[in-house]
Protein: Aspartate--tRNA ligase
Organism: Rhodocytophaga aerolata
Amino acid sequence: MLRSHTCGELRMEHVNQPVSLCGWVQTKRDKGGMVWIDLRDRYGVTQLIFEEGKTDPQLLEKIRSLGREFVVKAEGKVVERVAKNDKIPTGNIEVRVENLDILNPAKLPPFLIEDETDGGDDLRMKYRYLDLRRNAVRKNLELRHQMMRQTRTYMDSKNFIEVETPVLIKSTPEGARDFVVPSRMNPGEFYALPQSPQTFKQLLMVSGFDRYYQIVKCFRDEDLRADRQPEFTQIDCEMSFITQEDILNTFEGLVKHLFKQVKGIELTNLARMSYADAMKYYGNDKPDTRFEMRFTELNEVAKGKDFSVFNDAELIVGICAKGCAEYTRKQLDELTEFVKRPQIGAKGLVYVRYNADGSIKSSIDKFYSEADLKVWAEKMQAAPGDLLLIISGEATKARKALSELRLEMGERLSLRDKSTYSCLWVLDFPLLEWGEEEQRWFAMHHPFTSPKPEDIHLLESDPGKVRANAYDMVINGVEVGGGSIRIHNRELQAKMFSHLGFTDEEARRQFGFLMEAFEYGAPPHGGIAFGFDRLCSLFGGADSIRDFIAFPKNNSGRDVMIDTPSTISNAQLEELSIRVSMSGKK
Amino acid sequence: MLRSHTCGELRMEHVNQPVSLCGWVQTKRDKGGMVWIDLRDRYGVTQLIFEEGKTDPQLLEKIRSLGREFVVKAEGKVVERVAKNDKIPTGNIEVRVENLDILNPAKLPPFLIEDETDGGDDLRMKYRYLDLRRNAVRKNLELRHQMMRQTRTYMDSKNFIEVETPVLIKSTPEGARDFVVPSRMNPGEFYALPQSPQTFKQLLMVSGFDRYYQIVKCFRDEDLRADRQPEFTQIDCEMSFITQEDILNTFEGLVKHLFKQVKGIELTNLARMSYADAMKYYGNDKPDTRFEMRFTELNEVAKGKDFSVFNDAELIVGICAKGCAEYTRKQLDELTEFVKRPQIGAKGLVYVRYNADGSIKSSIDKFYSEADLKVWAEKMQAAPGDLLLIISGEATKARKALSELRLEMGERLSLRDKSTYSCLWVLDFPLLEWGEEEQRWFAMHHPFTSPKPEDIHLLESDPGKVRANAYDMVINGVEVGGGSIRIHNRELQAKMFSHLGFTDEEARRQFGFLMEAFEYGAPPHGGIAFGFDRLCSLFGGADSIRDFIAFPKNNSGRDVMIDTPSTISNAQLEELSIRVSMSGKK
């Protein structure tokens, strides 16, 4: 090793020892007679000291030439600091340097390598390798490593086997967002990159592997929203001979283990909520349960007056914002603007101020007496000082808009603290959802999800009513994982495909191998997959997943550092038997 | 859980307990009055017993309908066996079944699900999920999991951070065997799948990650020999502020840890050999050192007689096969045929029998006296009873042929036992090798490998003589890992690219980001990568890597189970702005 110690490990007990350290010049302070350098590596920062009269003049000259981010090797003796720094673990000592080698000089970085940097997003993406030097970013990746380790520790302790499934798989028409890979050896044919290892993990269950997991890259070529990546990582799991309850317990265990080991937080048992209740009380299948503010439906008490907006509405639904009765007109206008934004789409917002003095004042006093409004307030468990916010209209839309408003109010009332965690199982999802545009049913989870046995009789008569043995894990309003009990019976699987509009021939061509596998002794099985990037960002208390990925792509799917995607040569295209065809593009 | 225990865990202490087991019907023996079923799961086999008079007649009827590989749940009581089976851990007990549910029936499998199966390769690949049910195959994947765990345990204990590098990267002309991925969002542009995370791990060193590892999928679109796969797994590692010696020690530690933890074998310190010595003494840069049989060069003692074959040869080189003096004429002819095979390419084979009685007899007695041959025998440290085998010709070809013969003799003499392990570091590889066809130098390892400082002055004058700080780990004649100290200086890297025939513009376009990174403070660094599939097969005592991969591809790069690669729809091609162009193909 070029060093005897790292920059994070020297303490008082090392005083008088000769040491050698390697690292980057973080800062240099030159006070004439004395020069200090903070030397940084992954493990910490150690102060180097040089003193005129004590330090060799040539060495002093050399260190005065050092710039930020130079890579050096320093040899010297550990001494006790006069002015101790209790903010860093090495703050009691410094190294009086006798010899220093410049291992590599450095140009001035395009932005500050510090916790608070002056670099914009684009610049930091282009020089990602410099951004990764910043403590904040490196700590995110250390957290990620810790999450991986602890995930594996837990899964191994529960007898799960990690099995690598293939990356070069088969494209399916369902997977319109597959990335494909032309095969040179099989001209005109393509592999696809997996959106998930779903069918393979089910086959492993058919093989008797009993308990499988994998921390695995998956791929989806979709238009990237702010926080999606074309390649992402999942904790992918499957178990045999289990009921839904076993899966919930096993993976509740995983999440508890991670919180305990990585964050030092002891979670109590996770709350559970049906999809129906989540929609009814939060207007959302991934409610943020760090705060209550549940929906109250007001149809019974708000209809039948002269207010046609409510009378014509399918649903009148409200939330009670504790202690907000004194919101100003301006604040209320802001909230109204907020719900009327196109992406939220409410027509308007009704408010009822339940003043601290017990009086009640609303935006629709013309139609409702104080007594009427008191009834609402009571139904909504409001107390004097609270503000009621009410939206009406078509039920689905009203719930969606109120859900957004609820989250906004949670934000305004500081109820969404990133260091507080509220975990929830959402259960009993519908099996199917209707595609208005395509005029057919789609699998809400995926086509391999099992309907609840007691609902199977509804498959023909009322498909939308059929509930699935499907579950999501939601933390702080973010869906971090989801899964289901699978179909393990060929007939039922074939029936599902047919409900989803597959012809027998299509089902056979795409999933014949799986349906055939079900005929050779498939055990009852089910599983779950967690979005690992998202889980890491939640544990890191961050909004974006990007800073928990070493080399992320930007919103156009580009890595601007290595400049990819990029064109390839005609010779390479020819080898692969493909041509670029830009008709109607760009 | 549908079961109270697995099929591997019941013992005498469970006798009289009520239990429920789930699994596959391995065998059924029906002796009229008694029926036994061996029920199998991942954890073992448990015998179920049914007895006329004691078992409910309807249940007896049901179990008589069971076929092989039916999936069942059996409930009953553990009883002590009359005839114990000490070959299996559950052999002292059996379960007297009171209730049995058929969870899924099974068609008759196309081959026997047993250690010795009757299924051919093609059939087993098509029904890979059934092949994976066989103990032998499942144990391979359990070994692989164990290898992964122990690798991570070791690397974590040494402060390495596992960092995931991207799968969608940039194609480089050097990488003519890149798999590419068209980008839908960037029409006409392509990602490439990594042949290794080389540049990313070097960037992580520039970022100060200090110690990186990853167990990672890599991809190479090359014509597949019997034992290559288009996607394969590496243990990829990199360290900063180290010398070559540190890397050798660290990864010698990894290999020792794996042998100890996975195989229970304590390795002594690994032997080391220079590339030059490996070529000189074994004719091979990955010598199988389970046995000696080193080469002896005979130019000095064999030239100058009337034997023109030797007189004209650049090299005369032989091995001594202990105790083989009595090989028959037929055996010797076989060896001659062996070395004359086109893929080995020797013109002939000279043998010298050093008989047990001290006499000497050779195939070239016409030219050499017994005294001459005694000199050879002495030089080759032969004893009476040994056989000398000698090849001559152009030096490189003679060594290659003799290396093959040496391995063949090792095989014939049973010196290559798969349960014996001999590990070796091969050091000091040449930096460059001459491409005869392309008439230019190629990097023997890769363009990022550092020349030995003391050899840099030869780069211009005698490039072939420059040695690299590169090393391979060889186990039993198989290269399982290789790496190098990297260049961390922009000028030297640019010089290397120019030696490899890159124009400045090409170097900049392809690796500009890396060369630029070297200007912002790159630490000295180096690393290694192990072929994980190969390492697993070695530990498993097998020749082929295929049985250590859950879902391998065949020699045409096909997964015949899911039938990929396959065609994709025109709509999908259009979305991706590509067209299939079969000109001159197929």
